[in-house]
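Input sequence (348 aa), recorded before submission:
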Amino acid sequence: MTGHSIVAVFAIFAGIASGQTAGVSGLILDPSNSPISGVEVNIRNEHTGGRRSTSSNTAGLYSLPSLSPGLYRLSIRAIDFETIVREGIKLETGENARMDFSLTLGDFRTEVTVHGDPPLINSANASVRTVIANYFTVDGVSANFALMNPLSSTPSGLYPLQAGGAMIPANSFLGTFSNLVSPAPEFGRSPGAQIGLVTRSGTNRYSGSLFEYFRNDKTDANDWFVNQQALPKPPLRFNDFGSSLGGPVRIPHLYDGHDRTFFFLSVKDLLMLQPQPPVSFRVPTLQARQNAPPLVAALLNAYPLPNRTSSRFGDPALTGFSEYAGAASLKQDQQTYGLRLDPPSTID
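Predicted structure, token format:
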């Protein structure tokens, strides 16, 4: 397989994972505040090495759309003007930053590097990126379930619809997004806020992580109702652990993805024992189990043994029932796996 074929394969997978992006635009002026056309504008992703370039038009305007969220370095270069380099540009998901420049007369080989500028402000429109939660996407793909949305009937049968009203995210049993991320026109399906999640991308440097978050009941007091019935404390366990690895794609003797193609792999497991409220119900007595026919006894023995002497359900000798009280923990286990492949990011 040639290098070009490998790139094509990676591009197919990356097209599936492509989603919400960011952009930079602005106005370039000379010392007399007149627009400058033909200015070379270059931007470089500090993590992946991906580059984009454009030129200002006759009105002095430039635009660099469809950038992946990340940290960038921008350079403004024109003949007879000093070159301006701005570093540390952090672009967030869905951000369209406005960055204007005023050039100074001089040799274009002289570079003026700008550090620590004020935060980027979107002055091009009135959009606000503060969100309160209604529609969720992962890399631009819907991650929502319809809330109490009935199936619709058609001549060909029943099919589910995505409701246009209130929505809930396709989250985990804890109400988090840990089961989604290890996720054309994408907005407008429901009113309210639009919340986009973007999976991480690999960079030119191989890097990884190992993590473990845990909690247990060793220093917790017993539940009051469990104590009141003299029951043992049900176990509480919370283990959230996993690992990640990212970097350039390299296949020995075939392909070197440095500055071109990247991967990011994540694996996660969530184990939880969650104490439940104590329960109390009637169960067959030992005598009732022993006196029952074999087939009935098998059914009665499926119930837990009585552990309370109580007359709540009448005289056990007459009714054949006694009381069981207990407390247990609900067990949950959830695994999440994620693999992202990014194609060559340098555009000539």
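Checked by second reader. Residues 279-326 form one domain.
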